[in-house]
Each structure stands twice: as C-alpha cells, then as structure tokens.
Amino acid sequence: MPALIFKQVTLQGVYIYVKNTWFQNTQSLLNESLLKIAVIKFLQP
C-alpha cells in the first residue's frame, strides 16, 4: 500500500513538474492528455 501511495504521489509530482516545465506556455488539452499518458507509461513497471 505505501508503495502505491508513493507511486501516485510521484506520478502527480512528475506530471506537475513536467507540465510546468515543458508546457508552461501551452494550454492545449491534447498536449496535457498526451503528457499524462506518457508519464503514466513511463512510470509503469
């Protein structure tokens, strides 16, 4: 359970960091969706 919580927190943290860093000037919902998918795929074992 702690690992799952940590992974979720990490996922949110990475997503927010990458979104703020790479997509700072982008308001596109498509880009946000693609980014979320990419981060999830990257963090899955």
Keywords:
single chain, 45 residues, mainly alpha, 2 helices, 0% strand
Architecture blueprint of SSEs:
Layout: H1 2-22, H2 29-43
Helix pairs in contact: 1-2
How is this structure best summarized?
By secondary structure, the protein is mainly alpha-helical.
Structural commentary:
- The protein is mostly helical.
- It is 80% helix and 0% strand.
- The chain has 2 helices and no strands.
- It has helices at 2-22, 29-43.
- Helix 1 (2-22) crosses helix 2 (29-43).
- It is globular and about 35 Å long.
- The mean pLDDT is 71.
Rg result: 11 Å
Beta-strand proportion: under 5%
Q: What would the principal axes of the Cα set say about the shape?
A: globular
Structural class: mainly alpha
Helix and strand element order: HH
Q: Name the helicity range.
A: over 70%
Unreliable spans: none
Number of E-type strands: 0
Taking the sheet with the most strands, its summary is: none
Mean pLDDT: 71
Number of DSSP helical runs: 2
CA distance, first residue to last residue: 16 Å
